[in-house]
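Q: Two folds, back to back.
A: First:
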Amino acid sequence: MIELKIPGLGLIELEHLVCDVDGTLAVDGKLQDGLVRGLSVLKDRLSLHLLTADTHGKQEIIDRQLNIKAVRIQPGEEARQKAEYVLRLGAESVVALGHGANDAAMLKEARLGICVFSPEGVAVETLQAADLVMPDINSALDLLEKPLRIVASLRR
C-alpha cells in the first residue's frame, strides 16, 4: 500500500496499480526500456493490473516478460470496460496510468489518475481526466516509488 497525506485532499490509500498496456507500457507491441525494473520495485506495495485490447497481438510476450497475465478488453466500449474494472477493484484504492482516449474514464474513476505522454500521443480527454501528467512511463513509476513527489504536486 502507498499512503499519502495530502494537504487539502486528505488521506489517500492506494492498493492497486491499473495500467493500460498499448502505448502506455509498450510501444508497437514492445515494452519500453526500464519498465520491468520500475514495475518490480512497486510490486511489494501495489497489486498490478494490466488492461489491454492487444492492438499489436504481442500481449503474450509482454505477459511472460512481466510474469503477469493481462486482462483482455473486448472490442467495443473499451473505455467503459476499463472504468468498470477500476470500480470493481474499489476506485478509492486505485492509481491508474494511461494515455489513450479509452483510458480517460478509468483515470477519472481512479482515486489517482496519471496521464502518461506516449510516442503514440495523448488524447486530450485523457489529459483532462488526469490528476497528474507525466512525461513518460518511467517517470510515472518513479513518482509512485517516491510518493512525496505526488504530495508536492497535489497539495492545495
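A: Second:
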Amino acid sequence: MSEPAAFGAEWSAGLRRAEEAELERWLALAHAACDEADELARAAFRRDLQVTTKPDRTFVTETDTAIERAIRGRILAAHADHGLVGEEYGTEAGDAATRWYIDPIDGTHNFIRGVPLFGTLLAVERDGELQAAVMSAPALHERWWARRGGGAWARSADDTAPRRIHVSGVASLVDAQLLYGSGHDIEVSGRAPGFHDLLGDVWRERGFGDFWGYALLAEGAAEAMVEVDLWPWDAAAPTVLIEEAGGRVTDLEGRRAIDSRTFLASNGLLHDVFLERLTKGGASR
C-alpha cells in the first residue's frame, strides 16, 4: 500500500475497489462468519482448553483452529476464487485478486486466561487495497465493522440499532490518551526509542492491547494505539475500521502498511506528532 496524502472518511472512500453491492455482500459474509465464530468461542470460554505451543512459542487452542477452519469453509463456499491469509493455516491462493485476512481469536492469551478481551478479526482486500472488515468480541457482546465509503459502525448487546463511530477531535498531546499492547515489547524492540518519555507527556496511557485498543480509538475514546510484532491478520481489520472512522494508520516508519510488524493508529490529527515522538523522542509539545 502506498503512503497516503491525507486521511479521513472522504479520503478512505476513495480507496474503494469494488461496487457497493459487492462490498455489502462481503460484509454480510463476514458478519455470518463472525456469528459462527462467536458461538464457538463462547462455548469454550472459561472452560478446560487444549492449549499447544506453536514454533514461534505463542499459544494456540483448539478453538482458534476450529474457528479458522469454519471461516475458511464459509468464504470458499461463497467465493472459490478468493485467497485466504490466516493466522493458523497460512496463505491459500495468495496471488488472488481478492483475499481475506483471518485472525480467529485475536487475544488468544486473554482467551486462555479467562479475560474477555478477545475477538475474531476479518478483512477483505481487492487488488492490494483493504475494502471491508469486521471485528467481533463475543464475550463483550460487541462488534465493529466498516467498508470503504460506508463509514465505521458498532453495535453492543443493548443497542437497538448500529451506531456510526468516529475518531476523536483531540489535537493536543497533553489532552491525548495513548494506548499500546505490551510496553515491554515496544521498549525492547528498539523501534520506538521515544516510547517511555512519551508516556509521561500524554494526558493518560493504558495498555489496552489487541483489537480492543483499536476499537476504542475508532470510537473516539483514545487518540493513538501503538504495537510491535503485529502480523497482517492483526492489522488488516483495524486498518479499515480506523480509516473509515476518520483516522490514520502507518507503521513506525510512516508507511501505510500492514506487513512491517509495527503499527501506529491515531485520530489523524496527532499522527505525525506521535510518530516523531515514538521514533525520535524529543520534548513535550
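Q: And?
A: The two ends are 30 Å apart (CA to CA).
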